[in-house]
Amino acid sequence: MVRRADFLAANRGRRAPMPGFVLLVRERADGDAAMRYGITVTKKIGGAVIRNRMKRRFRVLARELLPVHGVPGADHVLIGRSDGIERDFSLLRAELEKALRKVMTRPAGESRGRSPRSPERKRHISAASGPGQEEAEQ
Predict the structure, then answer these.
(1) Does the pLDDT value for residue 15 go beyond 70?
(2) In this structure, is residue 116 part of a structural domain?
(3) Is the pLDDT of residue 47 over 90?
């Protein structure tokens, strides 16, 4: 996956947090049984060398495990966490297998434990107004 829209869509799917990464899985429902994957490692994790090392490790894991344990017709996104930098590779493999099993057992509608924010929810604005607000309102 390379398009930002695909990553954002996967964020609305099922989620399996692990110590070294977070796995997001979203079924595309487009009739194509191909499994796609994407990898995200932010600058908070480290410099370019560390981020690229993590991405290489995730690529190998995805190519090895997704054909066997992945969800057909779904997008899979691995988001790197700081605990995954120096994590043992066999431990990461076991965690990814566990995350894929966890995602497969969870129903599609049950993505997270919390309910989405209601659109009617309004922000509370304090009644006190400062001196600069009167000029901005006019």
Answers:
(1) yes
(2) no
(3) yes
∠ CA 29-61-13 to the nearest 5 degrees? 30
pLDDT bucket at 45, cuts 50 / 70 / 90: very high
Q: Once rounded to an integer, what is the mean pLDDT over residues 53-79?
A: 93
What is the domain range of residue 77? 4-104
Domain count, the chain: 1
Residue 114 lies in a domain: no
Q: Edge-to-edge strand order for the sheet containing 21-27?
A: 14-17, 21-27, 74-80, 36-40
**CATH code of 22's domain:** 3.30.230.10
Mean pLDDT of the chain: 82
Longest CA pairwise span in the chain (Å) = 64
Q: Are strands 74-80 and 14-17 parallel, antiparallel or unpaired?
A: unpaired
